[in-house]
Predict the 3D structure of the following.
Amino acid sequence: MLKEVKTIMTGIQDKLDDQDSKKLNTFLKNKISELETEKRELVGVFGKTGAGKSSLINAVIGEKDLLPSGDLSACTTVMIKVEANTKNQNYEAEIEFITKEEYDNDLWYCKEFHRTDPDNGEDHEDDDDDDNEDDNDEDDVDLDDSERLPALYGQDWERIRSLQDPWTDNKNKEIRKMIESGKKTISFNSSKELSEELVKYTRRDPEDGEGGDAKKYLWPLVKCVTVRVPNNELLQHVTLVDLPGSGDRNKIRDKMWREVVGDCSTVWIVTEIKRAESEKEAWDILKNTLRLMGNGGQCQQIHFICTLSDFIDDVKNLAVRNNKAKQKVKKSFTQKEEVQKHFSQDCFEVFTVSAKEFLEKTKLEPNETEIPKLQEELRKLNDSHSETLNYVSGAKGILSLIQGARSGRAGHNKKDVLSELGQNLSRERQKLSQSMDRYHDLFQNCLDMGVEKSKKSYEHALKTFLQLKKKDGRGFSKTLQAAFRNNGIYKTKSGIQKNLNVMLSRWLTESIEKEFRKTFPNESKPLGGAISSFSLDTKKLAEKYKDEQLQLEYLWTEEEKMKTKLNKIIRKRKKKIYNSLTATIEGIMQPCYDAAEEHSGTGCLERMRETVVQHVHTRKDSMFMEAQNAMLLKLAGLTKEILQELDQMKESIDLSLEEDQSLPDVKKKLEEVMQYYDQLKRST
């Protein structure tokens, strides 16, 4: 249907190209060009090593051998996107490599943190004797990330580590070539061939030894892999993203991770069914991404997926066991107050899936594996994808305008119609402007309280971040140094990301949390429905002015198109508005992070702490106020952008009643597109 309508509009545009470039003619050609839009729904897939993410994705999209899986000791190390290949029939993967800056950062990190013997703390000690607090897994920086370059160089790592500038080493030519190339595309006729080649770019085995027994991998050089699958209807408008659970300690890769999480419309959290309710890591993933998915993102659905439910002795008890697991997980969800601030129970659903059984079909019927239920969720995302309907609706409007302008029937009513449309536009613009002013005042009042709370409570955030929970500060200066190098962020051994900027902005974000969700909900209309209620009353005017019915039909489609565009703008801008509080704090803190990182030698831990504490204490009266003003400024910018979009309707109104009998006769094409439009409306 979409292909047919696109063919029609291409033909119309060709005919318009053959005419003199009148203002209306140019306007129409631009409007046809604007019909082409492309948006993909992102589904983020989280889960710890061994939870079965790769097997799940393979089963859901019906490609058993696509993503490397099956070895529970091996784990995915990079972000993997899976989407449709719309260009050819091959199985392809586009591999994006890290930058020179990221390589240098990994090199520094490995030199500072890598341990020859993970149980020996010698390389991780510092010279501080005056700190009486203790190092533990929860506070200490994640050492797994320091294995990146040893995994890449194998037994040659120690030599590379000792070089002044490894980048210029002769044995580094191939690595340098990959990084400088930026990207690489590999293509195969089968998914199995692609999967076998992908392993070295995406996986690592924690049980691999070092030195002569170590394997060499390329995953440390890879930032992201995009896998493209041919002939897959479930991926038509959907991209599945296999994501690490808590970002990256590298600030560039972490920024990419945060942006992708914020763009996900649905999130799958994958865990083993045997301990789904009590699985700490799965719930930690949800807790640590709430801010990015909820008010700071656009997530509308959270699917908690319990995997490996095919490991059973008694098939008859499968349904009973699965239902018990679902009820326990749902109960746990309702008891997590922090989650409820961002998502309602209606957004949460639990699935118990048997990916292996779905593919092998030995004990269960397909529906009993619940994989078909997840496939149906992807179909809904494809079906709810409004681009097809928007294109056909827009095409119908443009053809209506062409036919109306060609008929020359606007006549003596033109002045009256323009006058009423202008009055309606002015009225609606004023209503929206007043609505936005109310939201500005509302958030200013909330933030005023947040600023005062922040001034009183910031010392708690500093103490939590800068102090260890127990005693003996061995290595903690290294942890903080790594954090300051990464803009105040580090990842603990338990996989939790600690972010001082988030801690300092906590009371500001908490002050707006409830009202922000009401104003910018992910699952329903924003701004209290102020955009959706906008109307030029074109339907009423069409009844009153019969000769201008086609032109008013066009204006109705333009109005709907504008509202769709505004909702997209709001969805995109609201993430930046919410995140601006933390981003502003991070910018203000950056000078002290840079200064603190430079400390070394005996007593550096206390000097780093003092540098940060003194900076915050000096800036406390202005820092939180600056964050408030930054958010309100972005909110004002959104208001301005909305009103500018409304003002552009004026051009559409003015040109809608122009007459041009040289335009092509599109009566039959209009009737054809109207039939397609009616079919689409009925199907949705």
User: Anything to note?
Assistant: The first strand starts at residue 41 and ends at 47. The CA atoms of residues 98 and 183 lie 9 Å apart. The chain is about 55% helix and 10% strand.
